[in-house]
Amino acid sequence: MRAKIVYFALAAVLVVYFVLVGSRGVMLIQQGTVVTVTFGLAVMILPFIGAWFLYQTTKFARDANRLARELEAEGGLPVDELARTPGGRIDRDSADEVFNRRKAETESTPGDWRCWFRLAVAYHDARDTPRARKAMQRAIALHDGKQVGALGA
Which UniProt keywords apply (predicted)? Predict the structure, then answer.
């Protein structure tokens, strides 16, 4: 719950920032010179890029949470079986062992979104965020019945 509050607070701050930047862009355009209009248009692009990124990130998180709730209802969420260091960090060898099992499971049933979801969690536990995100995107696409490319996370 705390993560949601922080996320929405930061999203609200970003929206305020987008409005402020956009208003500065409008002010530059209203100056009417070639230089200020050019800068104003360039500044106006930034809030649109930021809003698109914020939308995509929010949509991804919402879709991943939807899959997690469904998998939890089925009793298929991965169990936290990872060894931890005295400081609470995940032991690398333990994460690698779980990852290898999840990868083998996914390779044996590449069309199952549940396997891709669990593989994404294993990637995350192994601190491989880019691959975790790609595996989760694949899980979402498979769940939603979208076409996915060749095997690979």
Answer: Membrane, Transmembrane, Transmembrane helix
State pLDDT tens for residues 91-106.
888 888 889 999 999 9
According to DSSP, residue 76 is labeled -
Report residue 143 as tokens: 């769940």
Report the distance separating Cα 25 and Cα 69, nearest Å. 42
Residues 22 and 66 grouped into a single domain:
yes
Helix axes 92-108, 113-125, angle to 10 degrees: 160
pTM flag (> 0.70): yes
Boundaries of domain holding 56? 2-74
Q: How big is the CA angle at 19 (ends 39 and 26), to the nearest 5 degrees?
A: 35
Q: Supply 44's token pair.
A: 């106006």
